Each structure stands twice: as structure tokens, then as C-alpha cells.
Amino acid sequence: MSGMNRGGALGDLDEACRSLKTHAGRRDSVAQQAWFESFVKVAERSEALARRDEEAGNLFSAGRKYVRAGVYYLLAERMPSHKNPGKAIAYRKALAAYEKGYRLRGDPVERVDIPFKGTSLPALFSKAPGSGRAPCVVHFDGFDITKELIYGAAAEEYRRRGISLLIVDHPGVGEALRLRGLAGSHDTEVPAGACVDYLGTRPDVDSKRIGVAGVSLGGYYAPRAAAFEKRLKCCVCWGALYDFDEVMENRAANRSEPSVPGHDDHAQWVFGKQSVEEVREVTRRLTLKGVMDKITCPILIMHGENDRQIPLRHAERTYEEAVNSPLRELKVFTLSEGGAEHCAADDNALAVDYMADWVAKVLGGKRAPVLSS
């Protein structure tokens, strides 16, 4: 689902998964390596087809296939441990494929670096149409997703509504973790503040209309940022996460589905720790208890009725405690309408449309096209 929602082809994904049937239900290193090799194979094929189109001068077609290759490389590197050298190789190939794909397709997106604590945070800036100052949403990642995957799922719908996106690989995720060694932390208002500072330097952004959004673990990251960075004028939780330590505890007891195999190993990498005990010292601080009542901007919390990773009660508590928000909304996607799985993985479009419409209403974007008579 993740691959299709972000530009992958059903046939490629079916081929990659078909060979993995014998590994179904296993979470060991053999199964992880099989997954990795299967998705690298379809990525390399898509890349070869892209080069053929490029050599023929069919650059739009080449761009689509390079982006598709980027999707598959990211799906490949998602499963192996960070100690597997192939993971870093696939990640760099994904970045290169995406960069080339965006350029050849002519996407209105630029790669930017946000000054941060003596280094920088890699980000993608998706520009709204027009020449004036537009509203912008700072979009945070989750536990195991990257800026490119969010761009593929959401950027065009925000852009259609006249809203720019700054999609950030903040500490603990994506390029910031993989290539710059920046570990995650509880105080997400710090990278959020750096992003707002940066956006304030851009002539195409209205600094009075900046919001924040987050997906999955971003359901903690975004409201935490909005609570303490008061320049943020709205907040969206694309999947709530009230207490990450509770999630860690449930996964240790096999009471919930992990998002990646080797969850504890991945958490140690994300937070820069050497043991689960050290990770728990960090995750005990990743709670919205005592935080939500500090949010004074509008907030939207979206959650799936059938989310098997993060129970619905996380969304309900996040909503219930946002008592000082002037506009709070809890949207639960039901099994009957779709979007009911974790972060609407079963129907991303429902969630993306809903939050983009909501942000357009709150920050003053477009909610309908100008139709000719």
C-alpha cells in the first residue's frame, strides 16, 4: 500500500512480494534480506527503464520511472537492520533516483538545508503556485518514514490548495539520521523553530501562516512542537501518538503490530542509544501528558478505527486534553469509509484530502478550483 500511495506500480509491487510468500510471518534476518533483494531488483529494473527513456529524450517518462525506482529503493532499505551495509547503499541510490526524477518531471520542488545546531536538516520545499506569499506547513516524519515518501503522498494536494510544504528529515529520521548522525529527541519544538526561522527568510512564504503536521510518531512530534513553538498557527496529527513509551511496552509484550522488524534495534538507532533500557529513558519523555493543554492553535487529529499499531485511545486522549485550542477536531476513519488502518495506509487519499482541506480552511488556502464558465 505504501508503495502504491507514493508512486509505485501494482505489477512491480506484486512481483516483489510474490517471491516473499515463503517468508510470510517471519521477522528474522533471512526474511529481511529476501525483502531487501526483491525490492532492489524491481528498483534496478525501473532505473534501467528510466535511463532508456532518458537516452531517447523522453524526459517526463524517465522522471516518472526514476521516482518509481526511488520508492522501491526506500521500500527495500526499510526492512534490514541499520547494521546491514546494503541499507545505506540503497538509501543513497534512492536519494539519487528521486533527485533525478523530480528534475526530469519538472516538479515544483527544491532541496533545501535548514540551519540547525551547527549543521543542517535536509528538507524538500514544495512550492505553492503563484508569485505571492503562500501559507506553508512544516511536515515532520514518523518512526520509519522519510521526506520523499511524504512528498509523494501529500505534496500535490497541498499545492493544489495553494499551500507550500516544507517536508523535513528532522533528527532521528531519514537523511538527518542516516547521513548526518542526528539522533531523535523529545523536544521537537527545537527543529520546528529552526524550520520557522528558515521559512521567515523566504519571500514566497507568509510567515504568519505556518502550520505543522506529522505522520505516525509525528503524531507526537507535531503537537509537541505546536505546544511550545507559538509561531505555528495550526497542527495536524496524521495518526495520533499520545505516549510512545506505552507503545514500546505493548510491542515488548506483543500486544501491538510493529512497523518494522527488529523494532528495538531500529529504536536504538533512531535515538542514538546502545540498549533498550537507554531507549526507554528517551521514550518516557515522548508523551503528550502535560503538553496538550499548552496548544493554543487549531488542531486536527486523524486516526483509523482499525489502527493495529497505535490504539484509537491515543487519538482520543490527544483530543480530550487539547482544552485550550480554539478549534480542535478528531476525525476517525471507519472501516466502512476506508482509511481505517495505521495512518490511512489502506487509503492515503482520504486522509491527505481531509487534512489538506482542513489546513486550507484554517490557514487560508484554496478549497475549490476557479472554474471557467
Question: In words, what does this structure look like?
Answer:
The protein has 373 residues and is an alpha/beta fold. It folds into two domains: 107 residues, Up-down Bundle (de novo design (two linked rop proteins)); 255 residues, Alpha/Beta hydrolase fold, catalytic domain (Rossmann fold). It is built from 14 helices and eight strands. The chain has an eight-stranded mixed beta sheet with strand order 1-2-4-3-5-6-7-8, sandwiched between helices. Helix 2 packs antiparallel against helix 3, helix 4 runs antiparallel to helix 5 and helix 11 crosses helix 12. The longest helix has 27 residues. The chain is globular, with a radius of gyration of 20 Å. The relative contact order is 0.10. The mean pLDDT is 93.
The assembly state of the depicted protein chains is single chain
- Measured by DSSP, the beta-strand proportion falls in 5-15%
What shape does the CA trace take?
Answer: globular
N→C terminal distance: 39 Å
**Briefly, what CATH class of the largest domain?**
Alpha Beta
Major sheet: order of its strands? 1-2-4-3-5-6-7-8
What Rg, in angstroms, do the CA atoms define? 20 Å
Mean pLDDT over the full residue set: 93
What structural category do the secondary elements indicate?
alpha/beta
Element-by-element helix/strand order: HHHHHEEEHEHHEHEHHHEHEH
Major sheet details: 8 strands, mixed
Tally of distinct domains: 2
Count all strands and give the number: 8
Low-confidence stretches: none
